[in-house]
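Let us practice reading a record.
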Amino acid sequence: LLPTGFWHSPECEFLRQCIGRSQEAVVGTVRLSVFKGQVYVLGRESPRSLYNEELVSMNVQGDYEPADATGFININSLRLKEYHRLQSKVTTKQDE
């Protein structure tokens, strides 16, 4: 929307509100290094971080098994394949 000059459009206002709402609970610190036009993230921390090393580790016994990833990928791919199929139909109809 922005590159086409629609900053004041209802769609852009909607997006700004969505982004603002999604960031209400975000707190923390990010350490950056800026050098010759490049930005490097040196570290980040947040008291509300959802990252838990014990939950994502395959070495820690819990409710997650490596085979679960395959199921998750398969289930997620169903909606993505259907989205692509529907988008292809829309594109084909528009080209006719």
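A brief commentary: The chain has a mean pLDDT of 86.
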